[in-house]
Design a protein that fits this description.
Elements: H1 3-19, H2 26-33, H3 37-41, H4 47-70, H5 77-89, H6 94-107, H7 111-134, H8 139-158, H9 165-179
Length: about 180
């Protein structure tokens, strides 16, 4: 893809994190990028084309990330699971979480967004379940544990425990221990 089109997609994701799908407007993105709307129309037919590109970019990026993050590369499955928990629970990426929530909200009313979310969720669950399978679980146990793993990853990021960071750290460590037994 055109690197300048990628800038529009990145700007669209950033705006989506702040204001949801309705905030992704050509005029706003052009202003944020410091360019004219004409630059947009040289790269995209219209706003729906941009939104489609945003969905494809987000989906492909999330699937590639989880595949890379779950590859063992010399680590044991339990080490990789602990690493994933540290990656997603120790520091919350507010923009990434904003995008995730905005796309999931969008998916409630749009079939293309719903399909993208379903693809990402399936990849996440499949790859984490494979790690649990490598620890000796049956497929059914691994699928259930992968589901719990993602309930924890997303749920903990939505809880406001920052007023007591030590308590949050202890809860995450205890939860991680349960998830990686």
């Amino acid at each position: 893809m055109d690197p300048r089109a990628d800038k529009w997609i990145e700007a669209g994701l950033a705006e989506m994190a702040r204001h949801g799908i309705d905030g992704v407007r050509v005029e706003v993105l052009a202003k944020n990028l410091g360019v004219t709307k004409g630059g947009f129309y040289r790269r995209f037919k219209d706003r729906p084309a941009l939104l489609d590109s945003i969905l494809r970019s987000w989906s492909a990026g999330r699937v590639a990330a989880i595949e890379q993050q779950t590859s063992l590369g010399g680590a044991t499955a339990r080490e990789r699971l602990r690493g994933l928990i540290r990656l997603y629970a120790e520091r919350i990426n507010m923009q990434a979480m904003g995008v995730e929530l905005a796309i999931r909200q969008w998916a409630r009313a749009d079939s293309a967004a719903a399909a993208a979310v379903a693809t990402v969720d399936a990849a996440r669950l499949k790859n984490v379940a494979q790690l649990y399978r490598a620890t000796g679980m049956t497929q059914e146990e691994a699928d259930a544990q992968a589901f719990l793993f993602y309930c924890f990853i997303f749920g903990q990021s939505l809880l406001f425990l920052e007023r007591d960071p030590r308590r949050r750290s202890r809860l995450i460590a205890a939860s991680a221990a349960k998830l990686v037994e």
